[in-house]
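Q: what does this look like with adenosine monophosphate bound?
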Amino acid sequence: MVEKSIFERIIDREISASIVHEDELCIAFHDLDPQAPLHVLICPKKRINMISEALAEDLDVMGHLLLVAPVIAAAEGYADAFRLTINNGSGAGQTVFHLHIHLMAGRLFSWPPG
Ligand code: AMP
């Protein structure tokens, strides 16, 4: 059996997290090590290790994650300016291999990102 990801353990309430949103397709919670005043991770409940492994059948869930992000940003008081980031692969900084979107807001963000 494949070991659960840390985010599946949050979904299953085996470890605690500061959850800001949950629905049938996704869960969103504050990052443990925030890199901005608002730093939330939005994860599909379905285990998809990384975006490069998403399949055509994941179209609905992938679209859902993007539509939920601005709703959460607005609910947290950052409707106007926020950044979404997905790290794909350890070379791009991915450390947890359960797909997630970083939603960050509340500070200036440089471009290009580091
Ligand atoms: P990434 O490096 O893109 O894979 O992002 C993984 C993120 O998960 C990092 O920003 C971590 O701080 C965050 N993280 C790891 N474990 C937890 C946890 N138990 N609760 C909340 N955030 C976590």
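Strands lie at 19-22, 26-30, 38-44, 83-85, 101-105. Helices lie at 6-11, 59-75.
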